[in-house]
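Minutes, project check-in
Item: structure for the 132-residue chain
Input as provided by the requester:
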Amino acid sequence: MAERAQAHRATGKRKTAVAQVRLLPGDGRILVNERALEEYFGRETSRMIVNQPFEVVELLGRWDVAVRVRGGGVSAQASAIRHGIARALLEADGALRPPLKKAGYLTRDSREVERKKYGRHKARKRPQYSKR
């Protein structure tokens, strides 16, 4: 029976986007929700964000990535995938921690949208003051 390659799994988050990442040894293919990276993210910036962890540790083209992502917008999803990939790389090789940590890819960006309050136009914007 053939030995299956060890898959490394991790979860990445940003705002309300959650990315479940599977990392397998391969030739650099990235599938997002069963679609190619170029097909899923139209913007070059989003594709660049997804590849950043590989560039930092100089492993671009060495791993195949399968991602299931949902929630949030396009930018938040890209950042969630980056977070997940960084965590999965760390699981694969603990020696990669210093460069990933220095680049800030292991830190979950905890900023969330503030709720709208009553009597306000947005979360903090007040109605215009009228003297008369």
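Outcome recorded: Strands lie at 8-14, 17-25, 30-32, 35-36, 63-70.
No further action items on this chain.
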